[in-house]
Amino acid sequence: MFENAIEVTNVVKSGKNIKITFKNKSDLTFELLKTEHNPDVVYFRDYTIKPNTTETVSVKLENGTKEGNVNFEITNLVVEPNHGLSYTYKVMAK
Q1: What's the CATH number where 67 sits?
Q2: Degrees (nearest 5) of the Cα angle 28, 11, 66?
Q3: Could you give the CA distance from residue 36 to residue 86 in angstroms, rounded to a whole number?
Q4: Is 52 exposed, middle or buried (0-12, 13-18, 19+ CB in 10 A)?
Q5: Distance of CA 63 to the CA centre of its chain
Q6: Number of structural domains the chain divides into
């Protein structure tokens, strides 16, 4: 459901900084909460993507890291009690 509703519309890389723009094509709001990840892949803790809008996630790769995963739990898409859907987007430096 989430992957059908969300589309990556733009990725901008500048050295070790990456900006990923997600477009919510649905009428649902998605609540994203950062989950366990490599500490050298730095990004904001949580995001709300409202219906029919875009949200840009800024990622910084630190300490020589060339790639990594941006991991979120979609907290309002519950797949089992107290656990939302997991989502991962892979990023790589320019």
Answers
A1: 2.60.40.3090
A2: 120
A3: 11
A4: exposed
A5: 21
A6: 1
The whole-angstrom separation of Cα 50 and Cα 47 is: 10
Domain that holds residue 67: 2-92
In angstroms, the Cα distances linking 9 to 3, 25, 55, 81 are 13, 11, 10, 32
Cα→Cα distances 91→8, 12, 15, 26, 29, Å: 12, 11, 12, 24, 24
CA atoms within 13 A on the CB side of 47: 25
Residue matched to tokens 């790639």: 67
Reported as a single tens digit per residue, the pLDDT across 24-71 is 999 999 999 999 989 999 999 999 999 999 999 999 999 999 999 999
Residues in the chain: 94
Name the DSSP class of 36: S
Model pLDDT, residue 94:
79
Contact 50, 57 (CB under 8 A): no
